[in-house]
């Protein structure tokens, strides 16, 4: 499998470089694509944000077998969650799937690059088949409507083992 990093035009090239280098540490088979516009049909005018499910559908259609695409944006993204039609989120990935999206919009100003990497790696974990994890330090924990990324330190051993079986590389386990 190869991870395709698809920046959208609103996402700064220096931020693409940072997240790409971090992803390569755990999954070296990565290719960065040229920046493209966010899909117009994903825009939700009422809330001035983009529907994450529509972005994923757009990316999924462009992703061939054997590849996973992660879209990177700084725009606000949302999804329907329960009875809330337009719930703001940091990222979305289907499990399993071949596309996901991560957004910088809801991150704190301090250590934003580190937080964004954790969102990106979490969504990529979903594409590989990982569920949310009950371990509070694990990258796969459920955000539960908050931003707990500062508490996350790594994948737990169970999630790491799952990813190792998918050819992810880790220096320790």
List the helices and strands and how they pair.
Elements: E1 2-7, H1 13-26, E2 30-32, E3 43-44, E4 49-51, H2 52-61, E5 67-73, E6 77-81, E7 84-89, E8 91-93, E9 99-103, H3 112-127, H4 157-164
Parallel strand pairs: 1-2, 1-5, 4-6, 5-9
Antiparallel strand pairs: 3-4, 6-7, 8-9
Helix pairs in contact: 1-3
Round the mean pLDDT to the nearest integer and report it.
Answer: 94
Percent of residues in helices comes to 25-40%
Low-confidence stretches: none
Estimated share of beta-strand residues: 15-25%
Using only C-alpha atoms, the radius of gyration works out to 15 Å
Name a few traits of the molecule.
single chain, 173 residues, alpha/beta, 5-stranded mixed beta sheet, 4 helices, 9 strands, 28% helix
Structure description:
The protein is α/β, with parallel strands linked by helices and 173 residues long. It contains four helices and nine strands, in the order E-H-E-E-E-H-E-E-E-E-E-H-H. Helices cover 28% and strands 23% of the residues. The protein has a five-stranded mixed β-sheet, sandwiched between helices. Strand 1, helix 1 (13-26) and strand 2 form a beta-alpha-beta unit. Helix 1 crosses helix 3 (112-127).
Summary, kept brief:
By secondary structure, the chain is of the alpha/beta class.
